[in-house]
TrEMBL record:
SMART domains reported for this sequence: cNMP
Domain Cyclic nucleotide-binding intervals: 13-117
Top-level taxonomic group: Bacteria
Cited InterPro entries: cNMP-bd_dom, cNMP-bd_dom_sf, RmlC-like_jellyroll
Organism, as annotated: Arcicella lustrica
Protein name, UniProt field: Crp/Fnr family transcriptional regulator
Signal sequence residues: none
One Pfam short name: cNMP_binding
Length: 194
């Protein structure tokens, strides 16, 4: 189900936005359409925006010293994505962000982010909740990487995002799970036999 930015904000705040609050906030956003395989954020360059995915899929990844990419996050409809540390600290990004299909996003710059926090009181709370949730999800993912085997992590991922396999290449799913594509193929074969 496609979720609008208004629904996303109200769900996290557990309250409705006034028309004035919503219009003030959306006036600070820049709609952008990016093509499949187009890169939005580059490691070693400052990430100047937070992005809300309206339609499409993005993924963030880092490249290790051997040139191998490691998927960190997928951003589907209704998700926010960025290199948050770079955005907040104005330092070079650790992650790259790339479109996996044509993607429509709403971008908020650092200046407009600060303006939203200052001019619309609900948004300071909204972004605090957003950042808290991102931190909690990150900690949860780290814990699951140590405590669950790859099959359980795979099952949890497809339960959370049922259309993942239709929209994301298998090698990126494997990368996100921290396994090789061949291992993911074996897991999928074993599950189909059960």
């Amino acid at each position: 189900m496609k979720r609008t930015i208004k629904e996303n904000i109200e769900e996290k705040l557990k309250q409705e936005l006034t028309i004035d609050e919503y219009e003030k906030f959306t006036s600070l956003l820049e709609p952008i359409t990016i093509q499949k395989k187009q890169q939005l954020v580059f490691e070693d360059k400052v990430c100047k925006y937070l992005y809300f995915v309206e339609q499409g899929v993005l993924h963030s990844y880092l490249t290790d010293d051997n040139g191998e990419n490691h998927t960190i996050q997928f951003g589907f409809e209704g998700h926010w994505i960025s290199d948050l540390f770079s955005f907040v600290s104005n330092t070079p990004a650790t992650f790259n962000i790339e479109a996996l299909e044509e993607t429509e996003i709403l971008a908020i710059s650092k200046t407009n982010f600060e303006k939203a926090l200052q001019d619309i009181p609900k948004f300071e709370r909204f972004f605090r909740i957003l950042i808290q949730n991102a931190y909690i999800q990150s900690q949860h993912r780290i814990a699951k990487n140590y405590s669950d085997d790859a099959e359980h992590r795979y099952l949890a991922l497809i339960k959370q995002q049922p259309d993942l396999l239709q929209r994301v290449p298998q090698y990126l799913v494997a990368s996100y799970l921290g396994i090789k594509p061949q291992s993911l193929s074996r897991i999928r074969q074993n599950l189909s036999k059960k």
